[in-house]
Each structure stands twice: as structure tokens, then as C-alpha cells.
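Exercise (ungraded).
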Amino acid sequence: MSGSAGVRARLAVWFGVAMLAVGAGPAEAPPPGMQRVPGGAYTPFYPVKGEQPTQVAPFYLDMLPVTNAQMLEFVRDEPAWRRSQVSPLLADAAYLSHWAGDLELGADAPPDAPATFVSWFAADAWCRHAGKRLPTEAEWELAASPPVEDEAARAETERRILAFYARPRGTLPRVGSTPPNAYGVRDLHGVIWEWVEDFNASFAASDARSDRDRELENICGGGALGAADTRRYATFMRIAFRSSLQASYALHHLGFRCARDLP
Amino acid sequence: MQSFRSRGARAIAGVAFGLVAFACGPAERGPAESATGARDPQALPAIDPQQLPVVEAQLGTPPHAAPPVGRDHPAKVVVKIEVKELVAEIADGVQYTFWTFGGTVPGPMIRVRRGDLVELHLMNHPDNAMPHNIDLHAVTGPGGGAASTFTAPGHQSQFSFRALNEGVYIYHCATAPVPMHVANGMYGLIVVEPESGLPAADREYYVVQGDFYTRGGYREPGLQPFDMDKQILEQPTYVLFNGRNGALVGDHALTAKVGERVRLFVGNGGPNLVSSFHVIGEIFDEVRHEGAREITHDVQTTLVPAGGAAIVDFRVEVPGTFVLVDHSLIRAFNKGALGMLKVDGPEDLQIYSGKEVDEAYLAEYSATALEAKRAAATAAAGGETLEARLAQGRATFQGTCSTCHQAEGQGLASVFPPLAKSDYLMADKQRAIHVVLAGLSGPVTVNGQPYNNVMPSWAHLTDHEIANVLSYVRSSFGNQGEPVTDEEVAAVRASLPKPAQGGHP
């Protein structure tokens, strides 16, 4: 099983190359296991005054988080990323600590559960190895929040996300246990936190009452954050969570998935 | 590698930047020398951190306060607090996901001496989902320690501060979204004692109020998620002492003995409501608002702001149950803001007598008052018909006689004799008047049935009322007799012996 995952990852590379070679257009089917996510304008949660929303190009995103089985295949191929050999600069002491051994998953790491206890460096390396890359925060947030016409539905989605974030997590479910969103992507909410390429581009303001920090003043007084935005508690939590991280951290509930540019 | 490093640096700067704004520590105490050059009596001696004795903080688990410091010199106090996210009961049958300092709401009570150097360790358990930090209002410095303790799950942080100001201070998590972290229970108290310590108390308890926002209504069972909308409207489902409905009630009540000095360290975590803290049946002998040096005496209700605290002391003089409430009473009555202090010991009836009188109070509904009203009505109507008198008699019967003789005068078999078709009643008008005026006790035979009971005297009714009620019963329930006049009643009353005058001249 883990072997096939690795093969799939490598195949995905070939697919991408092949599509490039034939000059496949945007209507081309996405690589296996990925979905095409339309781009759009992304306004950072803590924008700087005068800054224009980021324009995000359409991209491919993994339908599912990377699993323990896929991570195992990777460390078989790349000994430097095995638990006993990884540099402490690239992954802290918790790295893959729930595995039974360097090359053994064990009872606490089911093969089809999302790979967690993985540092940013390891996640980044995994995606490169698969011919992909980590999604940016803008890409991740866009993929996780498809536009919804109905305000009530949007509020209900936000409430569900919030309820999930507010619950301490026990054993992780297998990947794909939540329904796909409008883009066909699963598990963006309700299973794990996920690394993004620029995880610390935002910062978590606990409050916005400073009279010293120009940017915070802008956020507070310039109306860049409307009242509706301060209600986005789930987003606050993601930003706060990402802000608490360093790239070597490996955490129980933190995994990843990969993205790729369109051809 | 270099790019990663700069990325990390940016992140750390960003966090510090963000949290700096949440600077809610106390105002900085001025330098030792005032502008006039006089020595500030509040100035602290310099310390050498390397030379300070190191002590592990003895923390208080709610509802018990941490023990007094009992030290006459500064020390380095090491405080270790683990953050745990856990599901626990917020009320019987109702679960809630609490985020806690140390697994309790409130978190552990910290107690240090003014001038101490406090080394605080914050551990965020690996199973937690959220990053957390701690802002202690006892800290003088940006963010109260929030930026310095911002910690991902599975990590720990440490920072140190000098306790410059005495007082009792809230600490709380200050990670965005702050109101949610606080609403989930992330607060507690740190007491900074004056160098000489606080006066001794016989009992010291630790009570912190908080407001909670659940999707389901008050006491709606099951695991209830946090409700952001209710929080934004500041409409809590629960307002609680120590994080659970009934945390200080029944078997969990606070206790004391008569004569003891009770001290409550009362905090309010909020996040939103201000507390009108009151103990029913007690007066706070001393209140130290925010633990300040200035003492306010003789306080009924003390305001404890969200993110604030007080020390209240009172001696308990009499036994009983004294109820702790937020005197914004809907919170006590409908949202759980109730606790109990049970005091054992001997009564002191001079201070509190207990109930001395318990009897009916009829005010304008007393028979005399009603009669006066009726007489006035009659006079106004220019005379009184028999019909009116019977109606008044009926009213008296229903309010007075029917209790025993029953609504239709049928009596109660072998207990209360009947008035309906009653040979005893109808045989002798004078006797009937006498019974009403003087009462009747002992065996009688009515309609062939024996009765042996006691009827009290109704002599306090007026002649007019007795005449009317007798006229009514003698012409109702199948009885057919002539009316009784006021004069007939007056004549019988005159024949009765005069009641004793109770010693009055």
C-alpha cells in the first residue's frame, strides 16, 4: 500500500512533465489525486494599509493530506529524513515520534491516517520529492473557503469549523473521512492543521489597541478589517496557530498536503 | 537554509509585534527616587538573581487558596503551569471543551511576595490543538508575558518577571481569538503579598467568576460547542463560579466555623461580564479592591471587573448557609452564578433571632376591615337588603366556615359536623349564635351522628358579620330558617363572660 503511494507520487511527476510536453491546456484533467482550484484575489487577514489583494493563479492541490504510508515510502527513499538521522535543525525531537521505528509505523500511526509529527522542512522535502510544493497560505485559504452565495450557509460552515477547532483531538481518523468541498478537496477542516509554504507570513495580534505599531493602527483604524472579519474566529485560530510555529516543529495534529502550478 | 532562518526570524518578530499590543499589565511603578528627591517608601531593594534562594511555588487548587508565602526576604519563585484542553462537565449531564491552565477552571492560584523574581514555565501539552500563552496582570512589561510565552502544542516557554506591585491579579491566555480562549476557561489569580504578608485568616478560598457561551441552552444536555454568536452579543449561557454549575454547592460548598475570619480571593475572568459580587447574609468587613493597600470597610456588594479581582474578608458570627452570588441576579437565578458557604457553630440569637413570628396577615382583607367596607357601601346605598346581608354572610362563610364545614356545608364525616340540613343548627337559634361566639368543644350529636371535636370562638367577628353568616347558613344547603339580627347576636354576646384583660389597666 505504501509502495503504491510512492509510485503514485512519482507518476504524478511524470504526468506533469508529460502534460507540459504536449502543451496541455487549462481544460486538461488535473494530475491523479489532485484538484484544480481556481485562483482569485486573496486579502491577507492582517493586511497592510494600501496593499492590494494578492492575485492567486489557478493551481492544483492534493485532494487529501499526505498519509503515514506515503511518508514511510519517502523516508525509505531518503535516509536523511529518517527519524534517527534527521538533523535537529530540520526537525525537532518530536519528529515522527509516534512511529514504532525508523521504518515501521506501528499501532499509533495507521498507514491511512494523515502524516503528522512532521516538520516544515520534512513536509517541504516530501513535496519536492513528489515533484510538487507546499501550498502558500493564500492558496490554502482560497481552497479552504470556496465562495458561498448563501450567507447563512457560510455562517454555518464557519460554526462547524469553529466547533472542530475547539475540540481537543484524540486519535486521527483516516484521510478522506470528511466530505469534499466545492473544489473536490477533502479534510481541509476537521482533521488536522496543515503546513503552508509561508506559514509565518501572518502574525497573530492578540488585540489591536496599540498606539505604537503603525501597521496595527492601520488594521484598527483604517477599516481594513470590517466588523464581519473580526467574527472569523476560525481564521483567527489558524493564523494564531501558524504564528506559533517554527519550521523545525513537529506536532501531533500538524500534517500537510502539496500543491503544484498549472502547466 | 538561510532563507528558512530569516523566515523564522520574521515569524518570531511578527508574533512579538502582534502580542505587544495586548499590554495589560499594571502601570509601571516609578523609580525609587521621586521628583523631590525623597525616598519612595515603596521602592524595592535591588536583588542579585544569582544569590536569591530558589523556591518552587506552592499553587492553590480551586476552591482552595495557595498558602501564605510566609517569607521575610525575596526569592526566585519557580511556577510551572501546564495547559490542557479537555472535555469536562460544565453542568450535570452537560459537557464542554475547556481550555485550562493546569486542568482546572480557574487555573492554579499563584502566590508570591512583593519583590520576588518569578520564573514562569508554560507547557503546552502535545495533545492540545491550540497555541496558548499567558498574560499575568501582575507583570510590568509588554503583554504581561504573552509574547514571551506564546507556545505551540508540544512545546514549552519560560520567562521571568519581578513582582513590583502588591495586589491580586488575573492571569489569562492572550492568544487570538482572545475572548474565546478566555471564555473556554483560561484564567486564574496571582496574588502578590505585601512584604509583611496579609493579616492571618482562618479560611482562605479561591473563587473566580466566568461567563460561558454554549450552543445549547442552560443545562441542555450533551457535549455543547462554544457559540461565537452568543459571545459577540455578550449573552452567556452560563455565568459560573469556578467553571462548573454547582462547583461550590452542596457537598462542594465552602465551609467555616462560627467566629472564624473567612477570606475570599475573588477574581473575574470574564471574558465579558462585570460581577456584582455579594454574599447573602454577610457584610464584608474588609475589601481590598484589586488587592490594594487601601482597605474599604463594611461593604455589601463589591464590583469585580472582568480581568480584575478583590480580596474580601469577613468574620462569620452565626451559623447557616451563606450564598455567594453575582447580584446581577439573572446570572444567579438562571445562569448558575451561585455558591455556598456553610458555617457551623452555636447560634447567637442577639445577632440573628431566626423566625419569631409566623402568622396570617390579612391587612385590608381582615373581617373587621371588610365589614367597615361593607357598612360604608351599605350606607352609600341607603340601606341594606336581606339579599345583601346574605351575600355578605356567604362571603364570610366561604372565607371562614367552609374550611371545616366544607363548601356546601356538608361537613366531614365523623370529624366536622354538617351545617346542611342540620338539626343541631336549626333547632335553637340562640344556641347557634352562642356556638359562633363562644366556640364548642366536646361530644355533640348532629343528624344522629356523634362528633367530638373543637370549634374555636369567632367572637372577633362583629355582631353584624355573625348575624349575616348565620342568616346565610340557616337559609342555605337545604335549611329553611328566619334571619338572625344584629341585636340577637349582641344580646348573646352580652351574656358571655368578659375575657381577661391580660394585665393591662
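Further reading is listed at the end of the chapter. For now, observe: Residues 100 and 106 of chain A are 5 Å apart (CA to CA). Strands of chain A lie at 34-37, 40-42, 54-56, 59-62, 193-194, 254-255, 259-261.
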